[in-house]
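Can anyone check this?
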Amino acid sequence: MLDDGPGLYLATITLALAVVSCFRTYWLNHSCPPLPPGPTPLPIVGNVLSLDTARPWLTFNAWRSTYGDIIYARLLNKPVIVVNSEEVARDLFEGRSNIYSDKPQSIVYKPFASDFNTGLLPYGDRWRLHRRIFHQAFRPAQIPTYHAVQLRSAHKMLFSLLQDPDNYASHFQMFILSFVLPIVYDYELKAKDDPIANVMKRYVELIVVALTPGATVVMETFPFLLKLPSWFPGATFKRASVECLKAGHDTKDIPFQHVKERMSTGDAAPCLVTDTLNRMRLSEEDNTVITAAVKETAAIAFAVISLPSAQTISTLLVFLLAMVLHPEVQAKAQAEIDRVIGKDRLPDFDDRPALPYIEAILRETLRWHPVFPFGAPNATTTSDVYKGYFIPKGWAMTHDETKYPSPDEFKPERFLHEDGSLTSDTMPLGFGWGRRICVGRHLADTSLWIAIASFLAVFSAHKAHDEHGMDIPVVPKFSAGLAIHPEKFPCCIVPRFPDAPVKVLVRLTGLGLSVNITSELLKD
């Protein structure tokens, strides 16, 4: 009998879970309006066996053709409502934002140092405080004060691409780092292997690897996996948790202490941390609470804007991939730049209204391959009924954009009228919806625009050639996980200026010798 004990116990638990699952489904179906349509869930596992766990948005999109724009599914013990259309997303997240502004909570957030992430906080006072701090630094009226540092960073990126074009992903990242660190921490990037940047990069890279949708569902279903000692064989999740907690502590404290030290000597320039701490001194609010919120918002601001998994850098990689695959689009954009700006200077922010095709390329880049295709799950604060379907309190949602004809094609013209003027479609899907829309979207938008316009003014991207001079085919491949980006692909980035490109760049940018350019590159 002792040998039968564990097996009997597991069988009993399994049967109990099946009964509870069936009872809950029966109750919901008979006491409330019907749930949205969706694939029939199996006992215990739900629809998880039908899901592409590495790229769940592909499964959700496939379900749309059968079940429509709003779908019910269950992943193990987690029921979800999948929103697959912009119309439904606007109706719910904007039209009923008082209900749909919460976030689903998870037992994995705290052990993986994600419980301070503004984007994951439940709707309440702590989130409002974070939002207020973000708004002061990244509201639309504040963004023009960052244009000078963004422009300078874009010009440095051009020099880096000229010297080492094969390392384009690193140059895109350095472009973002070189203006985000001053804006958030009044910190100038020291080098490619800057210690503060490395601390923060490690944190986000650990989070992205550890908290994939599949891993999260497994840990939520079997929480004992997080209670195993880290030395226990197979305790992969626990060991990842220990690493994330250490990295999360460092990413909040180390750069924050840098600012505090500069403030103590009177040497701190305006930045998110300095400005918020100075305002805090005039406030009657709890300084301990605000100090913690400043640490948290600063770390998250850096993470969501500037790291490899972040939307800004990944979107620049998508842009480069699109230019390699669509040389006709690149040529049309460069013709617009030459016509409007000429070749005696580089684009600046004042040129943006006169470059509608560049704007269309930016919008199409965000639409073509969203770097967060799974979306950021939302949750309801109370039950709701939408188009006759019951949406229970606390159930999560996600969305995937599919409203454009031929969505796999890269066509900036879809954002232009026949006369070449821009349409009113500004693609909010790239930054979320309603009250939980990304606060840093305005800074990310201007960063992407100046990087794209500057790149196209100076460089062309083409397919690389093999030893026989033939084009090397580019087959787009994307990373898996919650945030995706194009995997490294062969390409050839060449200057548009035929002679003395470094001297031309020095003249056009006005950076002179402040940029680290070797004397050899400045020779004829």
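Reply from J.R.: I decoded it. Residues 1-23, 397-401, 513-524 have pLDDT under 50 and may be disordered.
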